[in-house]
Amino acid sequence: MSTKEKSLNFIEQIIEEDLKNGLSTNKLRFRFPPEPNGYLHIGHASSICLNFGLGIDYKAPVNLRFDDTNPTKEEQEFVDAIKHDVTWLGYEWDQEVYASDYFQQLYDWAIQLIKDGKAYVDSQTSEEMAIQKGTPTQAGVDSPFRNRTVEENLDLFERMKQGEFSEGEHILRAKIDMASTNMLMRDPIMYRILKASHHRTGNDWCIYPMYDWAHGESDYLEQISHSFCTLEFLPHRELYDWFLDQIIDPTLVRPKQREFARRNLSHTVVSKRKLAQLVQEGHVTGWDDPRMSTISGMRRRGYTPTAIKNFANTIGIAKRDNLIDVSLLEFCVREDLNKIAPRVMAVLDPVKLIITNYPEGQEEWLDAENNPEEEVMTYRKVPFSKELYIERDDFMEAANSKYFRLTLGKEVRLKNAYIIKGEGVVKDENGNITEIHATYDADSRSGSGSEASKRKVKGTIHWVSVPHAVEADIYNYDRLFTHENPDGNKEIDFKEYINPDSLSITKGYLEPSLTTAESGDKFQFQRIGYFCVDKNSTKENLIFNKTVGLRDTWAKLDSK
């Protein structure tokens, strides 16, 4: 990487410094190490962009490693979803690896630590151990089992492996320093008994390594040069290095752990535990609910890989945790969709418009541009007829001079079609308008080349021909939480802030070209916003998810 090309963030500065100090560029290797215990969220997307982006910048390989050390929470479904998300974002990994690939090596190293007097089997209960470990301001005390002989520890650890003991009866701990100011260094657990089937190793093991023991050693086995993780792992770095010290070969690359700030997104949560709770308790329809901060939810909602990567690049890499306004993500989505999404016409709150002087039974197929951002303009045909749907708020029976949509006695242009003039209304017994009557200028059709077609009116509205209209279910999404930072108050259950109005479903009427739209297709409904075809949509029952509005119009939500 040329340092002249861009200013370097502190992560890149660390790498550049290591290269200056003698690390060979062909020794660079990065990794993205998710735990397969849930779906990935927007915070993971930033980490994916960081690690794979470094791989691209430095022409270095990047591993996709699953830290699968807890079989009670991990599933193949999550592995598959993670692989899909990384691929969808546009990245390729060098090796697909698993912590479970190294279970035997980790066990062998644990045996060596026992033999070296640096690990022991503890038989305390978890409650006893919590008391024995002390507090941040008070040193811990030694476990009564800390001085077991090497022979006894080897025997107990082997019997743990053979399944002789119940869960919680014994654990293996590293023997470090019970007086350390870092609580994680006070004889941390290395292995626990879990009699659960593993998604890859089945029932081969009933003891499983703790994350802190497996993670750094996995980095070392894969010869990862830089292990980047979020700030909550900063206190773990000392333990990461201690474990490496016990097994390191000085002729091989020693991984370096460094930390960056989490990206917390406003009006949502980015904790897999909390996201899982939302799913399991039925507050959302699944991990890919479009209101979720998961990558799969964002994909279903219509967000694009480019938008998510632009968002990650925009917020950059920080050293302090911060709360990113979700409006910035929506801006990135809007900016990308503006370039790629075809423009179509849809009416979501319809009122019927009848053009009284248009010939009965006549229809025309008019040219409509697909996207004005295209380098070479393309067009589609849209049907026009005597009866149209327009948006209810595009008509006002009596309006002031600043109202540029349809009103009685004034003209407005129908997008891609004719200029019309409001003439009258029909109301029901409650005074609600059921029909608007208008006349049209037959010589004013857009693009017809006549002088009349070129005359200007101040307003343009969209429409859909009634006999050709296609009905669809429109899923309108608001933010999932009413509070800007639902994680901010630890004293209150985050679920108390769930927005009861985060989803509303309405009927919409679309131009017929959308009958051929397929799952995932994205469109701009002109003058309304961006929408995406839902995965459950069929030709018989079209479903569109609202992705984002044409501009940032979210009302500021007050916290409870």
Structure explained in plain terms:
InterPro entries: aa-tRNA-synth_I_CS, Gln-tRNA-synth, Gln/Glu-tRNA_Ligase, Gln_tRNA_ligase_bac, Glu/Gln-tRNA-synth, Glu/Gln-tRNA-synth_Ib_cat-dom, Glu/Gln-tRNA-synth_Ib_codon-bd, Rbsml_bL25/Gln-tRNA_synth_N. It holds the Pfam family tRNA-synt_1c_C2. Keywords: Aminoacyl-tRNA synthetase, ATP-binding, Cytoplasm, Ligase, Nucleotide-binding, Protein biosynthesis. This protein has 3 domains: 10-260, 3-Layer(aba) Sandwich (Rossmann fold), CATH 3.40.50.620; 265-342 and 472-549, Glutamyl-tRNA Synthetase, domain 2; 346-462, Beta Barrel (Ribosomal Protein L25, Chain P), CATH 2.40.240. 24% of the residues lie in helices and 24% in strands. It contains 12 helices and 29 strands. A hairpin with a 4-residue loop joins strand 20 (411-414) and strand 21 (419-427). The chain is elongated, with a radius of gyration of 31 Å.
Helix/sheet category: alpha/beta
N→C terminal distance: 48 Å
Cα-atom radius of gyration: 31 Å
**How many strands, what sense, and barrel or not for the largest sheet?**
7 strands, mixed
Overall 3D shape: elongated
CATH class of the largest domain: Alpha Beta
User: What is the helix fraction of residues, given as a range?
Assistant: 10-25%
Mean pLDDT: 94
Got a strand count?
29
CATH homology group of the largest domain: HUPs
* CATH topology-level name of the largest domain: Rossmann fold
Strand order of the largest sheet: 12-27-28-29-25-26-13
Question: What is the domain tally?
Answer: 3
Q: Which consecutive residue ranges, at least 5 long each, have pLDDT under 50?
A: 554-560
Counting DSSP H or I runs of 4 or more residues, the number of helices is 12
Strand content: 15-25%
User: Mind telling me which CATH architecture of the largest domain this is?
Assistant: 3-Layer(aba) Sandwich
